[in-house]
Amino acid sequence: xxxxxxxxxxxxxxxxxxxxxxxxxxxxxxxxxxxxxxxxxxxxxxxxxxxxxxxxxxxxxxxxxxxxxxxxxxxxxxxxxxxxxxxxxxxxxxxxxxxxxxxxxxxxxxxxxxxxxxxxxxxxxxxxxxxxxxxxxxxxxxxxxxxxxxxxxxxxxxxxxxxxxxxxxxxxxxxxxxxxxxxxxxxxxxxxxxxxxxxxxxxxxxxxxxxxxxxxxxxxxxxxxxxxxxxxxxxxxxxxxxxxxxxxxxxxxxxxxxxxxxxxxxxxxxxxxxxxxxxxxxxxxxxxxxxxxxxxxxxxxxxxxxxxxxxxxxxxxxxxxxxxxxxxxxxxxxxxxxxxxxxxxxxxxxxxxxxxxxxxx
Length: 361
What we know:
Layout: H1 2-21, E1 32-49, E2 57-70, E3 75-85, E4 95-96, E5 100-112, E6 116-123, H2 130-133, E7 151-163, E8 166-177, E9 208-218, E10 221-233, E11 241-250, E12 252-253, E13 258-270, E14 278-291, E15 294-307, E16 313-327, E17 332-343, E18 346-360
Parallel strand pairs: 2-4
Antiparallel strand pairs: 1-2, 1-18, 2-3, 3-5, 5-6, 6-7, 7-8, 8-9, 9-10, 10-11, 11-13, 12-13, 13-14, 14-15, 15-16, 16-17, 17-18
């Protein structure tokens, strides 16, 4: 109960502070605050696994306030915070709102013009798409391996406008792993990242970079969009990691009022975790459907790990999930789902439910 009260208190504090801040300045005056808050409470019950130690129940929350302090029409300070569990549960450990901590996900100073923008600070470089966009309650689970997060550096984008390949935006960033106090979390501290950890991107200076091209509104292909990404992550005294991502999605509005959004992404990591003998490939496909306030989704991700040299061999992990949900007009949503995961030959089944609420200010 103590943990639940702590989570609820933090949520209430975010809500009161942000709503109050909304009245700081008139819409046509600077500086002014704006943003959004996402609140999720999710329960996952793993009821059947080849490894009995993985059978457990977890109830927890994720609260993500994103706040923009606009100094002028083009200059702003942007902050994104995340309150969530900061460690994985132990074997057969049931948890109820335990080990939650607050971390800074984004803290950047931005210039956003009509044709280009630049930013600097802490951010997640633009690389892959499915880790955030795959449909369903569990659609992003395996693809989350591809997310780049907790880096310091600078980046920018150029809006090329309408072209024969659609409306194009190109982006680039240079970065290195955050080892400052911002790499820690508060309430429950996940600990500070140290350079001695030596993972890809963890260097003394911004020696890593990411490039991406995002397109939409392709002529003759209404609702179609795509993403191409490349990232190079340097490591001290180890192999450089190379990442490639190719994704496409299509928003199809049917005559019966149903909207279908198929998504497909292929991503590959060479020299994974700076190991010259290891590569990983990910294929993620999802199909989301919406009709009125209802939604449904089917998602699949396959992951192939190839290891050469001594102890060479391939391994294959995969996950398939399905979910259904309803979103009320007041911003509250309820989704239920099921997933079957196979990792290192161990099959696990999970059912879950997600209660969500979001608002803008």
